[in-house]
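The freezer alarm interrupted the setup, so I double-checked each line after restarting. Inputs confirmed:
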Amino acid sequence: MTSTTFVPAFPVPVIPVRELLPWAIFAGLILLLAIYFVGAEEGATSLISGMYVHEFVHDGRHLLGFPCH
Amino acid sequence: MVRTLLVRGMLTGILAGLLTFGFLKVYGEPQVDIAIAFETQMDLAKEAAERAKGVAVQGQPELVSRQVQAGIGLFTAVMVYCTAFGGLFGLVFAFAYGRVSGLLTPQAVSLMLAAVGFVAIYLVPNLKYPANPPSIGDPATIKMRTALYFIMIAISIAAMIGAFALRRLLIVRFGDWNANFIVAGYYLVIVVIAGFLLPAVNEVPQQFPAVVLWKFRMASLGAQCILWATLGVLFGASAERVLAAGRVRAAGRVRA
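Predicted 3D structure, all chains:
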């Protein structure tokens, strides 16, 4: 048992990190921003003045589990 | 490859969003309506009391009608949320496939990631800070409540990522199967401690109907089950085709 190494049955192509990183950063940030607008904008924090976004997504925000007013 | 997985993830998210919206429209909206009726009743009672004391009361204007909130508003919120999570799911899959385990098929990785995502992002944080219908929650504490909720999500996700890192180290010594249970225990210990240390939020009005609260929270839970199950099953099938096509192309290049 001293020289056991893990050998996969077939090689699985792993996507290299340098290929992943630009997508993860740009797309990841935009998608997180989208979730922020549904979940927290004009509640705890506010990028846009007024309450329109909050009121518009109101029901979804409650039902998706975010704290709301 | 990453772009394809991202797009497939978002498309799966759109599909999951349609199913989730349908479910919430039928099971969630009635509870929201009852909760708002309760809220209105409480507000009217308060206004009447203020008026009796001789204080001038000004009602708040309605910015968005209930019909819009329960229709296109809910639809937009759910679609944006589900599509965004679908895209993020695709990106996480692109990283995890082949790294978590060299032996799992794309379908299995997708299903595993969906289960893990559901537990880490929704289930555990919501056991500490459950979803609440309108009329629950003091507007004065919204900042604190939102911060606590996101802190709980962040701790839960960080603990889950830590569990996967730990699993890689433990596999050599304890084997695949046992390592899973050890890191599951590690995750549970972290989130239980976090849940114990973070302050409780309990702002349910005394007279609020318990049945409505229960049904609302079940609707919220059901919606997340639909979202994550759809992502796990459909994205796996979709990714399998993409990766198989990639393998064929790669093989072609080797031969040529």
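Quick read of the result. Chain A has a mean pLDDT of 83.
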